[in-house]
Amino acid sequence: MTALVLASGSPRRYELLQLLDRPFTVVRPNIPEQRSARETPMGYVQRLAAQKAEAGARLAGDDAMVLGADTIVVCDHQVLEKPADENHFVTMMELLSGRSHQAITAIALHYQQRTRVTTALATVTFKSLTAEEIRAYWASGEPADKAGGYGIQGRAAKFVTKVEGSYLAVVGLPLYETEQLIRQAEGDANER
Ligand SMILES: Cc1cn([C@H]2C[C@H](O)[C@@H](COP(=O)(O)OP(=O)(O)OP(=O)(O)O)O2)c(=O)[nH]c1=O
């Protein structure tokens, strides 16, 4: 079996990838997250996932199969990543309150000089949030390291009235798509 490497510092991705029952190691490339003016949200999240996988491959070595991923939240054409501070977080929650947004995860697999990228997404609806709920949620410490400033798998679950699409795209690693990507890459390698 080809050595699988997860190019990520995200504990969520680590825990989820374990569920594929396939041994893997971890590298942590550092890719600056900055969207260029002409980049669409979809183009941006795909580029970051590919850059993480390719930077991971430089760390892990040529023979490895390297998985990178990136998650963003998109609302009103605005891309929300991790909140910089409490004020930024409050602005994000005020935007997401009482309406629907998209959570998108791109995954990229670099193997044998080729990078394959795919995406999974969900439409998530939040109830209307009070200022007190927003403040208490920040104080919990949960939002700081999460795209869109929330964790659907954690305390933010009580804000969510509806999820349509891929739940694991929200959490950060869609496993069906990840396994498909690995199988495709292995299949292509066997044909050669
Ligand atoms: C929306 C949402 C995001 N997240 C997390 C998943 C990701 O860890 C994080 C999105 O930030 P990313 O920049 O995609 O990932 P990361 O910096 O945590 O990890 P790495 O780049 O090293 O792979 O937000 C949740 O855990 N739950 C949620 O509901």
UniProtKB/TrEMBL annotation:
InterPro entries on file: ITPase-like_fam (IPR029001), Maf-like (IPR003697)
A GO cellular component entry from the record: cytoplasm
Catalytic activity line of the entry: dTTP + H2O = dTMP + diphosphate + H(+); UTP + H2O = UMP + diphosphate + H(+)
CDD domains: Maf (cd00555)
Necessary cofactors: a divalent metal cation
Gene Ontology biological-process annotations: nucleotide metabolic process
Designated name of the protein: dTTP/UTP pyrophosphatase
Primary localization: cytoplasm
Coiled coil, from the record: none
Annotated function: Nucleoside triphosphate pyrophosphatase that hydrolyzes dTTP and UTP. May have a dual role in cell division arrest and in preventing the incorporation of modified nucleotides into cellular nucleic acids.
